[in-house]
Amino acid sequence: xxxDNVKYSSGPExxxxxxxxxxNNDLTxxxxxxxxxxxxxxxxxxxxxxxxxxQRATEHEPIxxxxxxxxxxxxxxxxxxxxxxxxxxxxxxxxxxxxLLDAMEEKAATIRVGETIRGKLIALTEEWALVDIGYKTExxxxxxxxxxxxxxxxxGSEIYVTVKELEGPNDYxxxxxxxxxxxxxxxxxxxxxxxxTPVKGRISQRVKGGxxxxxxxxxxxxxxxxxxxxxxxxxxxxxxxxxxxxxLKLNRRQLNIVISRRALLEExxxxxxxxxxxxxxxxxxxxxxxxxxxxxxxxxxxGGIDGLLHITDMSWKHIQHPKEMFKVGxxxxxxxxxxDREKGRINLGYKQLFPDPWDTIPERYPVGSRVKGKVxxxxxxxxxxxxxxxxxxxxxxxxxxxxxxxxxxxxxxKVGDDVLVExxxxxxxxxxxxxxxxxxxxxPWTLFAET
Length: 451
Known about the structure:
Structural class: alpha+beta
Largest sheet: 5 strands, mixed, barrel
Strand content: 25-35%
Shape: rod-shaped
CATH architecture of the largest domain: Beta Barrel
C-alpha cells in the first residue's frame, strides 16, 4: 500500500472539530444572529458575567480544549468536575496520526539497500510476487525467482528477501528472493565445508561428466563417479532426486562447489564397519548373506562389514567353483577364522561348522584295506578317487598297472568310474591318501620269479 493512500487528519479538520461549541444552542440561544456570528471558540469578555455552575458543566465539559478565562476564574475548589479534562477526541486522533507517521519513519530508517530481511508472501501474479515487509509500501520481485528454491513457497509463508531498491517500479520496494537464497545457501555450504557435515540438495540437471545439484539457491557439481559406491549405469534416473552429499571443494570467488555422495556413503560404511568389528571376534559363529561370488570364493555381508569365504573353506571335498554350493542372496552361518581389525579384513569358514572327516581317516581307512570310490579327476600323473564327501585319494600312474611300459591314466580309468582300490599310505597332516589299483592283483613278476 502506497503512502499516498494513507489518510491522516490535518489542521483544518481539527479546527472543525473544535468549532462544535459554536453550534451548541444552549450557548447561543435561539437567536439566529448569535448562531451565525458565533466565533470558532467561545471566549468571555472581561466584563461579562460568569455563567452559573450548572451551565458551565453542561456547556463546556464535552468539548473543553482550552477553558476560557472567565470560566477558570469562576471555578471553585468545591467543584472538581469543572476542571479541564486530560484529552478530547481531536487530540487522540492527532496523537495516533503522529505515532503512525513516526513508526513508519522509524521503520523506513531501519531498512537499507543490500540488507536481507524477512517478510510474508501475500500475492502472486504471472510475473511478480508481492511481499509484506512491514514497510510503508510492499516489496516485489520477479516470480521466476521462486524457481531458485527446491520447493516454491506458498502464499502466506514467511520468506527472506534482499532489498535492492527502496523506491522501485510503481513505488514498490524492489526485492530479490534469489539473492537472499544464495546468501543463506552460501552460509550453509561454508559451514558444512568447515565442519565436515553433509549438505542437502536436488539433482536438477545432467551435464557432461556428472550433474548439477541445487543446494537451495546455489548450484554445485556432482561428478558421476562420486554418485555411488559402485558404477551407476542409468544416470538419467537420478535427475530430480533429493540427495545428501559432502562438500569436497569450495571457492566462492569462482562460484565453484564440488560435492560427493560417494564420500558420504564411504564414511557411513566405515562407521558401520567399525561398529560391526567391535561386536566380532575370532571363532565366533555368525549369520550372513552371500553378497557376491567370484572364482576364488564368496563375499558375505555380516551386517555392515563384508567377510571373505574362500573356496577352500567352503567344503571338505574339492569343488571347482563356489556356485556349486551357494548363490547370491543365500543366508548362511559361517565361522570367523581370522580377524584383522586394523585392515578390517575377515576370513570366514563354512566347512569348519562340520566335523573334519580326516580326523578319523586312519581308523576308518587303515593301510591295506580295500574300499570303493568314484573317479573325480584324471591327470597326467594319475587319477583322483573320492572315497566319501571330503575325502579323496590319488592313484598314481605307477599304481595303475603291473605293466613295465605304463600308458596314460586315461587308458585305465575315466571320470565317473566306480573303482575298487587298496589303501597304500595315509598322511593325516598333509591330508594325503595313496591308493592303488594294481595291488588288487598279485604281482606277476613276483610269481614269475617264484616259478
